[in-house]
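The step that takes the researchers longest sounds almost clerical: writing a folded protein down as plain text. The outcome of that step, for a single protein, is printed below.
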Amino acid sequence: MKTVVIIEDDPLIADLFSDHIENFDGYSCIGKYPGPVTYLSTGKQADFILLDIRMAEMDGLQAIPLLLKKYPQTSIVMHTSIEELDSLFTALKLGSVGYINKQSNSTELNKVLDDISSGGAYMSTEIARKVFDYFKTTNNIIDQLSERERETASGILEGLSYKLIADKLDIAIDTVRMNIKSIYRKLNINSKAELFSLLKK
């Protein structure tokens, strides 16, 4: 059973997330807290933390290093109604592995947890598209990539698995792997985190 902690200062939203999680197979919400400081004082570790960005007690971005220092194996998923790219990039650089909108439905939240449990990362399609659009309009780095490599990079940013990227583009998984190697070589990077980081340069 995977455990989830919710850090959210709006009790209605916290309750909604908790109700969703309790209906997922293999997941259990073990606590809801109004802020990171309150949660850290409990000493209660979880597999996942759903972390708000804007809170009175402490900004969620400021909390990420503190949470990961105490619980380095915990996966942090940011949730916010504010789709600011600066906040997204900062959260990713600080170590979060997912980013969803507070309006996300139960199905999407379940997918977030499942994808991350399988070793992936996740952000909503809407937010991933904003990131990729920003990538295309603010960096000439993207011009180094072929059209198929750009499509593959878009899939990476959406948090899709190699298989899902292959299915979406109607190509073989080995071709996806080849495209990703080419992307990393052309951009002189070695990981998805570095790909995200390039967006801020």
User: Anything to note?
Assistant: Strands lie at 2-7, 27-33, 48-52, 75-80, 98-101, 122-123. The chain has two domains: 2-123, 128-198. Residues 173-187 form the longest helix (15 residues). Residues 2-123 form a domain with the Rossmann fold fold (CATH 3.40.50.2300).
